[in-house]
Amino acid sequence: MRGWRCWCAAVVVWMGLAGGVNSAFAGGLCDGPAGGRFAGSWCSEGTGHQGRMCARLKQVDACTYRARFTGTFLKVIPFTYSVPLQVAGQGADGSVWLTGQSRLPIFGEFTTQARVDACGVQATYHSPKDHGTFTMQRR
């Protein structure tokens, strides 16, 4: 069952990164992505591990956001890290595509690609030892 949820999340992320997910951003139902707080989950496609995750997104300038991710591993081990994310594009619906990398202990170079709209974040992550998805909604 766990693998099925990860696979579904991966499809949603792929659709989002490809621009296939419509958002309420253009319709004014939610606030913009800058200064946003998001909550949801992460899922490792490599190990099947999953857990809670929150993110705070802050716009630094027109081309850069700073994301602070916090979450849990094995339901009880907390983690937190920050990563600068560069704007890689913008969707017709107002969504922003971001990409960035950060060096994390144990995991090494950690790369993130995300699609952020006013209501949520869909992202993928890769490191030498793991890869998976983040799926979060605005809090």
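Next protein, fold it too.
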Amino acid sequence: MKAQIVELEKAYWHAMEAHDFETIKKLTRFPCIVAGKNGVQSVSEAAFKKMFDSGAGAKIKVMNIDGIETQTIADNTAVIAYLIEIGTTENEQGHPMKCACTSTWVKENNNWVCALHTEVELVSESVL
């Protein structure tokens, strides 16, 4: 199951890069919980779409995913944690953002969906 969860997480990020909301919607369990530098919130599909659309001009590029850890909790639940390096067109200095991320994936109606995602920007340059 580890390989499947890693591929789902990568597919999610590829959809973010391509600004492909339909794929994101298929891979997300709504309402989803998101935690990051702006706090913790439960996000409905409509609110997620609004947030997604508000970032339409910001192109991201996943530069590296490393340090992946996964754990199967049950036949229908898995967690993943990893380090990610993301470049953006908005970053004037040209330095990619480095984050530690976690996601919880659940299998509903024979499809895996992300129910929780956390993201915290790292301050240490030597992590990746």
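About the second fold: The mean pLDDT is 90.
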